[in-house]
Amino acid sequence: MALSPHVPELGALELLLAVARLGSVGRAAAELGVSQPTASARIKGMERQVGVPLLERSPRGSRPTEAGRLVVEWARHVVEAAQALDAGIDALRGRRDAKLTVVASLTVAEYLMPGWLLALAEASPGTAVTLRTANSAEVAGRVLGGEADLGFVEGPSTPSGLDGAVVAVDRLVVVVAPGHPWSRRRTPLTGPELAGTPLVLREPGSGTREVLEAALAPYGGAARPRLELASSTALKAAAMTGAGPVCLSELVVTEELATRRLVEVPLAAGLDLRRPLRAVWPAGQRPGGPARELLVLTRQGSGHRPASPPHGRAQT
């Protein structure tokens, strides 16, 4: 049943209770952080709404009329119930906001997420984070299915059904073992050469594979892989044992390149193997709470070609 128009709003009831307790409209106004004229106008408006005088005013202050005392008693129950509701909502939000589930592509999870989550733990030590890993296609499916608050993917575009923001830009590199003929190349590797060479690659559905195939599409597409492996660690191991050229994120091979356990093959200028790393969430649902906080931290602490803050759907 709808309330009648004679029922005052909650803020007016709080003001009436403060006047009854303090004996003065001025003191009640100061306690509630409003001006005395505003408080007086609100009391008069409430009296017109209720239809009876609620306060007796005198030079010594204000006190409830006989009708006012009844309204004060009823108002006390209403305000106490509202305060209980407010506390309950805060508790629910606290429990929700203290939990964050993230699903990230393997490269992001292994090489960028630890730093981001450490920063989140320092900023919000009460937040419990669950991190799951998957390839980019699986990340998109889990976020769409409501299994995670936030996802992180690699690839040239935002997956269908999701909104996203670019948080960093990565670069794929082609690496070989020091004994491989390509390790001694003097000229950059061309698109047709790379497209025609069986490579050791990630499985279909990974962001790394998607970016490479898009880059090689103008040259007839990638050759059938020599091997398909499900992790960057496995790709590195295969490259170092001489299984063949490998294409993977430069994040993954920084140490191996520095120690010459792997050699980066120079690529021709027309081969663009850069890729955006994106945070993603269901379309039309802006991240809130710790998910939003993590998004902010990705731009403060990635240290790897950070992108500008998001404004709606990411540009692709």
Short description:
The chain contains 12 helices and 11 strands. With 316 residues, it is of the alpha/beta class.
Structural summary, described in words:
α1 packs across α4, α2 crosses α3 and α6 packs across α12. With 316 residues, the chain is of the alpha/beta class. It is rod-shaped, with a radius of gyration of 31 Å. The C terminus is likely disordered. Strands 3, 4, 5, 6, 9, 10 and 11 form a 7-stranded mixed sheet that branches. Strands 1-2 form a two-stranded antiparallel ribbon. Strands 7-8 form a two-stranded parallel sheet.
- Average pLDDT taken over every residue: 88
Helix proportion range: 40-55%
| C-alpha termini separation | 51 Å
| Beta-strand proportion | 15-25%
Sum up the overall morphology in one term: rod-shaped
| Class inferred from helices and paired strands | alpha/beta
Task: Report the major sheet.
Answer: 7 strands, mixed
Tally of DSSP β-strands: 11
Number of helices: 12
Give start-end ranges of low-pLDDT stretches.
302-316
Q: SSE order, as H and E? A: HHHEEHEHHEHEEHEHEHEHEEH
Oligomer: single chain
Q: Mind telling me the C-alpha Rg?
A: 31 Å
Highlighted features:
single chain; 316 residues; alpha/beta; 7-stranded mixed beta sheet; two-stranded antiparallel sheet; 12 helices; 43% helix; disordered C terminus
List the helices and strands and how they pair.
Blueprint lengths: L9 H13 L2 H8 L3 H15 L4 E4 L2 E4 L1 H32 L1 E6 L1 H6 L1 H11 L4 E6 L2 H9 L5 E5 L7 E15 L14 H5 L4 E3 L4 H10 L10 E3 L2 H9 L5 E4 L4 H5 L4 E2 L9 E9 L6 H13 L15
Parallel strand pairs: 3-4, 3-5, 7-8
Antiparallel strand pairs: 1-2, 5-11, 6-9, 6-10, 6-11
